[in-house]
Amino acid sequence: MSLPLKSLALAAVAALALGLGPVSAEAAPTGVKNIVLVHGAFADGSGWNGVVAALQAKGYHVTAVQNPLTSLADDVAATKRVLAQQDGPTLLVGHSWGGVVITQTESPNIAGLVYVAALAPDVGESAADVFKHGPAAVEADAIQPGPDGFATIPAARFHSAFAADSSVKEAAVMAATQGPIALAAFGEKVTVANWKTLPSWFLVSTADRVINPDLERWEAQRIGAHVVSVTGSHTAFVANPAVVAKAIEEAATSLHK
């Protein structure tokens, strides 16, 4: 509950007199304040809208990367451009293919990693290689290659395979705005595994139909991540942004730099 205006004004005067600066009704984050969100294939940065709003309400500085999805190198470059704009330690969050991107992206201001229903390859592995470590998801075949070398998920299957916990209408919008990904990107091997040197968290989507939840759990164990289970689809962060934002906030709070 916010302070009455009179009390807030008096508190501000007192704080200024003590050299403490202006008072805000919302306390500043106690850990890392910068959060960069990296979307995956068949999506764009707007998928994070609910998470962004929830984190901004807590005082975080949040930026969503817009990946071109044309190659791993291109997506890493897009992420590095955003990281260069941050004014301090930053928590890097990647969803799905975005997990490959945050695994490869090197920057001195990355304080930690959060994988959201993501792929976390080891050095010398590609996204395609990660899938070999576990059973295929029930609707992995929804990903369809096109004649131009890019893959998409057909609108007719998008709700069931990708966003079952969103409404049919919401999923239709997501399908219409999805970002096709270059198929060749799935075969590109990472040369860096950031999770080997940075604290990591892994949000497992328990009803994921694109990446098998058992594979996600295996990945989380392999990288030594703090594990959080999220009930929902591959895009649970769209349907339940507050739950995912809370997990990200807990990770950021634990990183005292």
Structural write-up:
It comes from Inquilinus ginsengisoli. Keywords: Signal. This is Pimeloyl-ACP methyl ester carboxylesterase. InterPro entries: AB_hydrolase_1, AB_hydrolase_fold, Sec-Metab_Biosynth_Hydrolase. With 257 residues, the protein is of the alpha/beta class. It has a single domain, classed as Alpha/Beta hydrolase fold, catalytic domain (Rossmann fold), CATH 3.40.50. The chain has 10 helices and 9 strands. The strands form 2 sheets. A 6-stranded parallel beta sheet has the order 2-1-3-4-8-9, sandwiched between helices. Strands 5-6-7 form a 3-stranded antiparallel beta sheet, with no helix packed on it. Helix 2 links the parallel strand 1 and strand 2. Helix 6 packs across helix 7. It starts with a helix and ends with a helix.
